[in-house]
Amino acid sequence: MTKKDVSWKVQKMMELLPPKLSRQVVLSLVSCVHCGMCNEACHYVKSIPDDPKMTPSYKADQLRKIFKANHDWTGRVAPKWVGAKTPITEEDLEELKDIAFGTCTNCRRCTYNCPMGVDTATVNRVMRGLLTRVGVMPEGVWAVSKDSWEIGNQMGVLMEDYQETLEWISEELVDELGDEKAAIPIDKKNANIVYTVNPREVKYDPRTITNAAMIFYAAGEDWTMPSFGWDQTNFGLFSGDDVMGGNIYKHLEEKFKELSGNLLVISECGHGYRSTRCEGPNWSATPQDFRMESSVTTMLRYIKEGKIKVDKTKNTEKVTFHDSCNNARSCGLYEEPRELLELVTTDFQEMYPNRQENYCCTGGGGAMSMAEYTPRRLKSGKIKAEQLAATGAKIVVTSCHNCVDGLGDLIKHYKLDMEVKQLVDLVAEALVMEKPAEVPEEKPAEAATLAGYKILVVDDEPDMRTFLSTVFEDNGASVIEAADGEQALTLAKSEKPSLVTLDLSMPGKDGGEVYASIRQDPQLAKLPVCIVTGRPELRKLIYDRDVPRPEGYLDKPVSEKDILVNARKILDLSE
Amino acid sequence: MEGNLLHTAEVVHWAALAFMGVVYTIRLIWLLKFKAGGDKQLPGDQGRTDLGPAMYSMANVVMPWAMESTRKGMFFYLTFALFHLGVTVGIFLAIFSSLLPTFFADQNVAYAIMAILGLAGLVGFGRILRRLVRPVMRLISTPDDYFSVTILTVWMFIGVACQAHLAGLVNNTNYLIAYLFATSFFLVYVPFSKISHYLYYPFIRYYIGKTLGHRGSVLPQKG
Ligand code: SF4
Ligand code: SF4
Question: Of the candidates A137, A386, A507, A542, which lies 20 to 30 Å from A291 by C-alpha distance?
C-alpha cells in the first residue's frame, strides 16, 4: 500500500487528528479493555439488541483503530494484534460516517457506565469532527453548518424574519396585557438580562418566546434580546467542528459584551446550554468572564424570590420530566427543573431511570437533521417509549428543543397518549398576573408579617442561627434554635413550630436524616421545611430519599429579603 | 540442575519486573506529552472545583452502586473483583515467594491463596468463553484481548500449583520454576497489551471526574 492508494481525504484526516488528541481523548483511546459493560447502557443496544454494531465500544473503536495505527507503538509494531487500522478509501469513510452519525447521539450514557471512565461520546465527536472537516457528513449536517457559517444561526433565519417575529410577538403581548412595557426590548444596552433563544423557537415555536417574554414582564425584569448573536444553539457540538463551535459562541459573547448586559440567559435547549455554558469558552479558547444561566434557573429564582407568583393548580395533569442528555449528564442541570416543576404543577411523576441515567430522546447529537437515519433512530427509541409509557403521565416536560422534537416523534411513532411541553410553557400557564408588574422594589412590608408564627431554626453555625433568628424575630415571629439534628427533632415535637429552616451539613444527624425523620413521623409529616444550605451538592441527602420534597430551598449566603419572602410564601401555602 | 533453573527463573523474573517498570515509565512519559485540556468556563451552578469529584470518580472501582452497569450486573462485578484480587495475589506470590518462604509454607495461607487463584482462574476461563460466545464480545475483541485473558488464566492455575508446592502439599520445584517463568513472560508482555489499563485508570478517572465535577454532573444522583 503506497501513500498514493490512500484517499486524500484520509490523508487530510490524519493531519487533522493530532491537534484533537488531548490527554483526555488519548486516555479514552488507550484505556478501553473491551469488557462490554457499557453495552447495555446504550439506547441503540437496548432497542436493537440483535445488532452487535450498536455497542458503544465498537463505535469508539473506529477512532481507536486509527489512533493505534498512527500514534501508538503497539499498533505500529503489531497492528492486527491490537486492532490498529487506518481507513483507505472514501467508501471506508462513508462507513465511518454511518457509524459516527447514524448509530450514536453522543448522549454520554455509556460514559457513566464504563468502569474505566472511557468517554465514548467524546471519542465519537472527535471522529465526527475529522469527517466533517473533509466533507464527509450527512447532508443535513452540511446544510445546517452552512447556514451557521453564512447566516449566523443554524436554521438560516434571516435578520428581518427574526425581527418581524419579535415585533408581532411584542404586538400581541402589548394587546393582551394592555401595557406598552410588555413589548420585547431589542438591543437595549445595560439590561440586566440578555435573552438568547433557539432558532427553532423563532421559526416553528414562537409561543415559547411569547411565554418567556410574559414571564420577564411579570417579574418586572430589565431585559433585552439581541438583534444578532441571538442563536444560543451550536451545531459545532454535533458536527464535532470546534472551529465552528468557537465561532458561533463568539457571536454571542461579542454581542453580549457590546450590549453590556449583566447576565446571559439561555432559553430551554440542551445542546444550546451545553455549547454556550459548558463548551463554548473551551472551543473559542476564551476564558468565560461573564455570567450566564439557563432560563430554568432564572424562572426558579423568580418564584423563590417572589418576583413572580404562580398557581400550580392551573397545571393539574400528570407530568413527567425528561432530562436532556446535554443539560444533565454534560452540564449538571438536574435538580433545578424538578424544583420548578414541583412549584408549577400538582402531579409530578419521575420517570425511571432519571437524571444521569435517563435514556436519550433519540433526537440528540443532531440526529433530527439526519433524515437518512430516521428509521434506525425511531427503532432506537423503543426503550424510551417504554420508559415514557410506564409513567402514565399525560405530559412529558423537557428543557430542550431537540428533545421536544425527538420525543414528539417517538410519541407519534409508538402511539403514546401524551404530549411534550417545556417548563417555560408550564410556568407561563401557572403565572398569576395580578397587575402589570414594575421593576420590583424592596418590599419588606409584604414579608414583614410573621407575627404569630413560631419558627425552628436548625443550623450548626452559631452565626447563621443568630442571623436567621434575628431576621425572623424582627418580623414578629417567635424563634427557637437547634444546633444539631437530635435537638431539632426533639424541639419539633415539643414546640410544634409552624416552619423549620434546616441546614443540611451538620455533625451527627445530618439535615437529610432530620428531614426524613420529620417526613416519616406522622406527628410532624406536614410540618413545612425550608432547606438553607451552603452546599448545594448535598441536595442528594434529600433527593436520594423516597420522601416528599421540602417546601422551600435556599442556597447560602441567603439575603434577609430572600429568607423572609420564602418563609412567608411557605407559610401562606401551608395554610 | 533444578537449582540452577530455579535461580535462572528468579533472575529472569526480577529482570522482567525491571523491564516492565522501564516500559511503563516510557509509556507514562508518552501519555503526559499529550496536553491536558482545561476548563475555560466558570464552574456549573452545582459544579465543584476541588478534588472531590475526581476522587469520587477514582473510587468508582469500589462503588458498584455508583453505576447502573454494575448495580444491575452485580455478579459480573463480583467476578471482576475476584479476578483482579487473583491478579494481585498472584503478583504478590511471584514477588515474595523467594523472600518469605515461611509465610507461604503456612497451610492456612496456602489454602487461602490457592482458593483465590483457583477461583480467579475459573473467572478468567468464564471470561474467555464469554468473549468467544457472545457476538458483541467477538466483534469488539482483538487478538490481544483473547491472549491477555488467556495468559492470566493459565498463570493463575500455575500459581495454584506453585503455592501447593511452597506449602509442601505437593513436592515439585518445577511448579515454582514454571510460575516464575510465566510471570516473567506476563510482566514483559503487559506493557504492550491491554492489561496495562490499570496504569491509566487513575489518570482517566481523575480527568473525567474533574471535568464533569466542574460542571456539577458527576456526583451521585437519585436513580
Ligand atoms: S468503553 Fe468501558 S465499558 Fe465499554 S468496553 Fe471499553 S472499558 Fe468496557
Ligand atoms: S454516547 Fe449514547 S448513543 Fe453513543 S454509544 Fe454511548 S450510550 Fe450509545
Answer: A542
C-alpha distances out from residue A32 to A58, A118, A138, B188, Å:
11, 7, 28, 20
Question: Domain B2-32+67-198: what homologous superfamily?
Answer: Transmembrane di-heme cytochromes, Chain C (1.20.950.20)
Do A251 and A207 form a contact (C-beta atoms < 8 A)? no
Q: Testing the interface with A: which of B23, B45, B78 to mutate, by most A Cβ within 10 A?
A: B45
Q: What is the Cα–Cα distance from A269 to A326, expressed in whole angstroms? A: 9
Is A281 contained in some domain? yes
Burial class (CB in 10 A: 0-12, 13-18, 19+), A575: exposed
- Rg from Cα positions in chain A: 26
- Locate A17 and state its grid cell: 487528528
- Give the pTM: 0.83
Residue-wise pLDDT tens digits, B127-177: 999 999 999 999 999 999 999 999 999 999 999 999 999 999 999 999 999
Kindly state the cell numbers that stand for A545. 430519599
User: Given an 8 Å threshold on Cβ–Cβ distance, is A544 in contact with B222?
Assistant: yes
Q: How many domains does chain A have?
A: 4
Torsion A41-A47-A50-A54 (CA) sign: negative
User: For residue A271, is it within any domain?
Assistant: yes
Residue A14 sits in the same domain as residue A130: yes
Phi, then psi, of B98 in degrees rounded to 5: -85, -20
Alpha-carbon distance B154 to nearest alpha carbon in chain A (angstroms) = 19
Residue A16 is part of a domain; what is its CATH number? Answer: 1.10.1060
